[in-house]
Design a protein that fits this description.
By secondary structure, the chain is of the alpha/beta class. The chain has helices at residues 2-13, 22-37, 44-65, 71-94, 102-127, 133-147, 158-161, 163-186, 246-257, 292-301, 304-307, 319-326, 354-362, 382-392, 424-427, and strands spanning 189-195, 198-205, 214-219, 222-228, 264-268, 284-289, 311-316, 334-339, 364-374, 395-399, 410-415.
Length: 457
Amino acid sequence: MLLLATTNEITSQVPVNPFLWVIPLSIYLLSFVIVFARPAAYRPNVYGPAFAIAVIVAFALPLFLDGDYTLLRIAAELLPFGLGCMICHGKLSNQQPQSQDLTLYYMVMALGGAAGGVSISLLAPQLFADYWEYPATIIMVGIIGVASITPPFNKTAYTHRMLRPLAALVLIFSFGVIAYSSITESEDVIAQIRNFYGVIKVSEEEPDSPTDHLLIMTQSGENQGEQYTDEKLRHKPDCDFAADSGLGLALDYLTLRNPSLGRKLGAVGLGVGIMAALSNANDTVHYYELNPAVTDFANKYFFYLKDSAAKIDVVHGDGRLTLERELTTGSQQYDLLHVDAFHGNAPPVHLMTKEAFEIYLRHLKNDGFLVVTSHPGYLNASSLFRGLAKELGLTVKWFSSPDNCESDVGFAVFTRDEKFFLQENVKKRISQWPDNGSRTVLWTDQSSSLMSLMVWR
């Protein structure tokens, strides 16, 4: 339970590093090997108090990081996990029976692991609206750790005899820190739901201000878009999607190219529906959204879809598979297709292969635009974008976020219409590739590696 709960926590809340799950698994296996190979390595009088202190650090640290998930926070969350593994595996090792009962012993251990997996994977999403199985598991391990402390019966060893009560006090304090951290993180949340795809929250900032009241949607810790509630401001798209962004420039160019015609637009990934704010009365916007709860929240708490004069349609399902099925009845002939289904900075592999891009291009007009949102960070997809463009005979340029934006979100704009990149307002916004290189990488359905995009720093 501790392994799965911790892995869910750090991989869902930390900006995405797809290999991060390997670290807790390695710690789990290493602790198992250590205590079963050398049972004396488990010292409950050390690990119990240390675990309680590590829990305080792990849950207090986010209060000072202001929501910034750094390597320091990852390490802080892995520290109580490692100590907790030593406690649990140490208790198991100490209870190892004689050889004639080992079969039953290991069978019960295996059944316990299976029951823990079912609890975290199947029961927790139904019982908890957030990843509360993580603090719940931490609390249970903490109780086991303190209960395992065995002070000696030497009446003169006053410090040793006080170890368990002191550790219990530290553990109780850590429970208070957990409670305070959970309350602090949820105090601005006005709605949330958890399903198979993760936890979706709508939070607010400056609720008492008529002009600065802002609503923000997050999915598993990742910003899905935001909007002001003021009627004069709520029609403005998020800073990253402004008129001088890569997406905004491509949409404006389409209007100038055919001013009398409406634009047919597609988007893989709905978020709060920001692209609807960039569409006009004659436009048609077709969204492909995997998570139905995102659509519910976008319609209930945000205004982009409701206020848009364009014709809006949302189809639920995997974007690539849905587009592939639609080809059986013909091409959609989109003027622009926007792919915005990244989770953090990690590209979903099946949406970024040569075969996936071939599907997108079959749905585009010959001079249409394919715009991909990217979040350079632990992974940098620049070389992949260049490789796909080279393989498919497209021109691609990178447009970083405007200077007044706080985030590093940018757009890779693919097209066969070379005139677009010659526009003066477009040339001013073309940016250097985030990797400052020219190397190319090509992913296919048969061969892809996230390691090829890893930023080592």
